[in-house]
Amino acid sequence: MPSSKPQSPHMFVFGFGSDLSKTDDYKLVRLVYRKDDVVVNNVPPGIEIYLINSGVWRRVTGVEIKHCMMKFMWSQTFVNGVVHWIMYDVVANGGGLQILVMTFSIADAVFGEIMLPDALVGVIPTNLSIMLFEESLVVVRYEKEIYDASCEVWVMKQYEVLESWRRLYRINLVADMEKVVGFRNNGEVLFSTRSNDLISYDPNSGCNMGLCIQGSYRSFYVQNYMESLILLEGNNVVLSNVVD
């Protein structure tokens, strides 16, 4: 693990993915941002990669990331061998924020960018989250008013093709629905609620069903899994309450 220790407040942004095509290994990338009390400072973060098989951290040098991340609000997803995060750039001369998706190729350790559709360009970064729908990249946009709240689900039909962004649907946030956690195989949407429950919502019928799973609405996390013959060192843990 890197020997240097942060000497001031920092925020750590993580991404996790597999490199099965080249090294049969899993990798964890960590971005280390200096931050203040409001947002992450416009200072390039440190970059570190952890290799699961070797158990070794290595620092990435010669790469400078100019994109920023709102503290405690980041989300990540892994698709097509690439980790994705919602990021923003501060536009000069009071031009506001430019929102985009930053990518990291697990196999090649290369960073890149994917632009968002025009409908999401001016959105506040904290009102966006990124995840996976079937095998496609998805961005969820939240709109919250005093007496009304909703979210839109946008999907990139063809990976890295800007023109393929499409809005799947808009959902009114009722029954204490707070945050989209993920998507089920049957097309239903998993929501965390302000009552600390996990529910399943059918966007076609508008009906929702409790799943008898409780926890803080910020703590729920869903990710697709990939079957593999790779054996990891350490104890294997089987979790109950798996949602299909």
From TrEMBL:
Name the record gives this protein: F-box associated domain-containing protein
